[in-house]
Specification:
By secondary structure, this protein is an alpha/beta fold. The protein is about 25% helix and about 25% strand. The strands form four sheets. The protein has an eight-stranded mixed sheet, with helices on both faces. It has a two-stranded antiparallel ribbon with strand order 2-3. The two termini are about 15 Å apart. The chain binds cytidine-5'-monophosphate. It catalyses: (R)-4'-phosphopantothenate + L-cysteine + CTP = N-[(R)-4-phosphopantothenoyl]-L-cysteine + CMP + diphosphate + H(+); N-[(R)-4-phosphopantothenoyl]-L-cysteine + H(+) = (R)-4'-phosphopantetheine + CO2.
Length: about 220
C-alpha cells in the first residue's frame, strides 16, 4: 500500500503543564491535562511520523509509538525540545507557566508567622524561541492560543509576535471545561487563512490537524 503520509518526518510536540518549584515540596502549576498535546503526538505517529513528545507532569499515559521526554519545568521543557531538533514540524501545545520562582528554596520553607513573598521571573517562551531560531527551525511551527475574547484577532497578532506559522486558537470563555475536557472548538489561523472548525473531540482535532500538516508535506512530493 501507499506509504504513510508522514513517514520519514520528525515531529516534536509539547504537552501538559509545567511545574515550577517553590521549595522541594511545593510548586506553581496550572490545570492543563495534556490531553490535546498527547492526542496530537499519537495522531502524528499514526500517520507514520517519528514523534518526540515533551511532556510536563500529567496523569495520562504515554501514547504508544512515541518517544516521550518527561520534564517538570519550562526551562527543562525548552532544553528537551532543543535536544529533539532538527525536526520537520514543531507543535507547541503545552500550557507553559509564564513565571518561575526566583531562587527556589533548597529546604522546605517553614511557617514563621510572616508570610513569605515569592519573587517571580519570566520563563522562556519555548514556541517563540524555536520559531525564531536561525538554525534548525522546523519547517512548520504551530502554536496554540487560549483566549476569552477577540479570539481570532488576538491569535493573528500572536502568530506574528511569536514568529510561528500557524496558531490554533480556542475560545475558553463560553465552552466550559476545555482545559481538562473532552472537546475543543478551534480556529486555525495561518498566514492568509482562518478556518473555523466545529466543536470536536480533542482526538478528532488532533487527527484533522495532522492530516492538514501531512497535506502540506505531500504537496512537495514528486
Ligand atoms: O502567549 P501564550 O501563552 O498565550 O502562547 C501560547 C502558545 O505559546 C502555546 O503554543 C504555548 O505552548 C506556547 N508557549 C511556550 N512557552 C511559553 C509560553 C507559551 O511555548 N513560555
Amino acid at each position: 500500500g501507499a506509504a504513510l503520509p508522514l513517514a520519514g518526518r520528525r515531529v516534536v510536540v509539547t504537552s501538559g503543564p509545567t511545574h515550577e518549584p517553590i521549595d522541594p515540596v511545593r510548586y506553581i502549576a496550572n490545570r492543563s491535562s495534556g490531553r490535546q498535546g498527547h492526542a496530537i503526538a499519537a495522531a502524528a505517529a499514526a500517520l507514520g511520523a517519528e514523534v518526540v513528545l515533551v511532556s510536563g507532569p500529567v496523569s495520562i499515559p504515554d501514547p504508544a509509538g512515541v518517544t516521550v521526554r518527561h520534564v517538570e519545568t519550562a526551562v527543562e521543557m525548552l532544553a528537551a525540545v532543543e535536544a529533539a531538533l532538527p525536526a520537520d514540524v514543531g507543535i507547541f501545545t503545552a500550557a507553559v507557566a509564564d513565571w518561575r520562582v526566583a531562587g527556589e528554596a533548597s529546604q522546605k520553607m517553614k511557617k514563621t508567622g510572616a508570610a513569605p513573598k515569592l519573587a517571580l521571573v519570566e520563563n522562556p517562551d519555548i514556541l517563540a524561541t524555536v520559531a525564531k531560531r536561525a538554525v534548525d527551525r522546523p519547517r512548520l511551527v504551530v502554536g496554540f492560543a487560549a483566549e476569552t475574547e477577540n479570539v481570532v484577532a488576538y491569535a493573528k497578532a500572536k502568530r506574528q509576535r511569536k514568529g510561528c506559522d500557524w496558531i490554533i486558537a480556542n475560545d475558553v470563555s463560553h465552552a466550559t471545561g476545555i482545559m481538562g475536557g473532552d472537546n475543543n472548538t478551534v480556529h486555525v489561523v495561518t498566514a492568509d487563512t482562518v478556518e473555523d472548525w466545529p466543536d470536536l473531540p480533542k482526538t478528532e482535532v488532533a487527527a484533522r490537524l495532522v492530516a492538514r500538516i501531512a497535506r502540506l508535506f505531500q504537496e512537495d512530493r514528486p
